[in-house]
């Protein structure tokens, strides 16, 4: 747990906020971390995880809208952005088909490669507007947090 070691010494609530705002980890890692490792109350973990996960939504959308053109001028970044966008397009068929409902489900289903960060990239690529994207991210993150809480408490088994 490299990230946990890096955040050692910070208040537990801040660890959950930072972890849930971190790409790839998001609520899928923050909820089990808070409940199983940090021994925090589940309700507190869910609230902090949802807040933390939503912190990057508008900055991601802003960055995608304003910085992508500049980044694409750098060969190495252009290759990475191209790879990321292609991967996201392949994984985001549900979003393309169902728009905001699809985005909500994409973010809400706690599988690898889904979540707020990838959902925001998909929303950008599909031309979804920022405020509806934020609302879909909020609902999807609540769903994912509740599913991960149930899994962390042994109520359901996701894998």
UniProtKB/TrEMBL annotation:
Which UniProt key words apply to this protein? Membrane, Transmembrane, Transmembrane helix
Give the domain of life: Bacteria
Kindly give the Pfam families that the UniProt entry links to this protein.
Sm_multidrug_ex (PF06695)
Transmembrane intervals: 45-68, 100-127, 133-156
Fetch the PANTHER family from UniProt: TRANSPORT PROTEIN-RELATED (PTHR36007:SF2)
Protein name, please? Ligand-binding protein SH3
- Naturally occurring in which organism (per UniProt): candidate division WOR-1 bacterium RIFOXYC2_FULL_46_14
């Amino acid at each position: 747990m490299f990230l946990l070691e890096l955040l050692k010494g910070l208040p537990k609530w801040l660890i959950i906020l930072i972890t849930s705002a971190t790409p790839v980890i998001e609520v899928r890692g923050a909820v089990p971390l808070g409940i199983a490792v940090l021994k925090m109350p589940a309700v507190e973990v869910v609230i902090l995880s949802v807040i933390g996960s939503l912190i990057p939504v508008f900055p991601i959308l802003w960055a995608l809208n304003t910085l992508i053109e500049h980044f694409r001028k750098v060969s190495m970044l252009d290759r990475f952005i191209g790879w990321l966008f292609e991967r996201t397009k392949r994984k985001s068929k549900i979003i393309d088909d169902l728009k905001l409902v699809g985005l909500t489900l994409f973010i809400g289903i706690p599988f690898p490669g889904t979540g707020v960060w990838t959902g925001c990239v998909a929303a950008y690529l599909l031309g979804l507007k920022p405020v509806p994207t934020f609302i879909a991210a909020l609902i999807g993150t609540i769903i994912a947090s509740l599913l991960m809480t149930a899994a962390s408490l042994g109520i359901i088994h996701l894998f």
